[in-house]
UniProtKB/TrEMBL annotation:
The lineage of its organism: Bacteria, Bacillati, Bacillota, Bacilli, Lactobacillales. InterPro entries: Bact_Polyamine_Transport, MetI-like, MetI-like_sf. Its main location: membrane. It comes from the Bacteria. Residues 62-251 form the ABC transmembrane type-1 domain. One of its GO terms (cellular component) is plasma membrane. PROSITE patterns: ABC_TM1. Keywords: Cell membrane, Membrane, Transmembrane, Transmembrane helix, Transport. The chain crosses the membrane at residues 12-32, 66-90, 102-125, 131-154, 175-198, 233-254. It is a multi-pass membrane protein. This is ABC transporter permease.
Length: 272
């Protein structure tokens, strides 16, 4: 690649990131605006953050949303990891491809279709809409994400480790707990964080399956925005952005730490 192409690529990336992050920075800046609208920046204040922490309804919805995201991401991570293991160890290549394609179809399906189909299902079986209907829905659309995060770790796994473990007398349970799971842990953690993020900001599916008495942040912000955007929402969005950034950085440093630890083990083994 020539220097000219490299400069063009860097310039292109800068433009892309500006387009993506400029609205977020604009929103964050106006969360400190002393005015009541985003038309003019009148001064710096923390009044909107004070109003946010005084809004008991919004804080309650935020706590419910985080609890929902943690539970759904945890359950989806467990089921998705088991699903990835099942797909990986399917002996029939055609069956494996069919299972993987079915998983990918759920990833590319529009959220509106998924939400409408889940609403029809809950209505047909007489399941009451509320927290548990939203929880089941979030688990459903998070499982394919976890499978997609874990499966590449399995395909990159060195099979000689498993063969060696079997030769040394390890049973299937020991191989799973001491070899396979530690190797695919980065994929499991990535799947969990992705599932948590998707659950935290999902609107389309949640809008269909939520019931009276329960709401999530995305649905609540949408209903409030229809009455006029309040800068209290800007303050909330700013806090969510920094929490999401902290999760991403935490996952990055955790993966980096595991990578360095693995390299030290490899170097130590080679020196011995």
């Amino acid at each position: 690649m020539t220097r000219k192409n490299t400069k063009f690529g860097s310039f292109y990336l800068v433009i892309v990131f500006l387009v993506l992050y400029a609205p977020i920075l604009f929103l964050m800046a106006y969360s400190f605006n002393s005015g009541e609208t985003m038309n003019h920046f009148e001064g710096v204040t923390l009044d909107h953050y004070s109003a946010l922490f005084s809004d008991s309804r919004l804080l309650g919805i935020m706590i419910d949303t985080v609890i929902l995201a943690v539970i759904s991401a945890t359950i989806a991570t467990i089921i998705g990891t088991l699903g990835a293991l099942v797909i990986y160890y399917l002996k029939n290549e055609r069956t494996r491809r069919v299972a993987l394609n079915l998983n990918n179809v759920l990833l590319v399906s529009p959220d509106v279709i998924i939400g409408a189909s889940l609403l029809i299902l809950f209505t047909m079986v007489g399941f009451q809409l509320g927290f548990f209907s939203v929880l089941l829905s979030h688990i459903a659309f998070n499982i394919p994400i976890v499978v997609l995060m874990v499966l590449p770790q399995l395909t990159e796994m060195n099979q000689s480790l498993i063969v060696a473990a079997r030769d040394l007398g390890a049973n299937s349970r020991q191989i799973l707990s001491r070899i396979i799971l530690p190797i695919i842990t980065p994929g499991i953690l990535s799947g969990f964080f992705m599932a948590f993020t998707y659950s935290l900001d999902d609107f389309a599916v949640t809008f269909f399956v939520t019931g009276n008495g329960f709401s999530t942040l995305s649905v609540e912000i949408f209903s409030r925005a229809r009455r006029g955007v309040s800068l209290e929402i800007n303050a909330l969005s700013t806090l969510i952005f920094f929490v999401s950034l902290a999760l991403v950085l935490g996952n990055f440093f955790l993966q980096k730490k595991r990578h360095h630890k693995a390299n030290r083990m490899i170097v130590g083994g080679s020196l011995q």
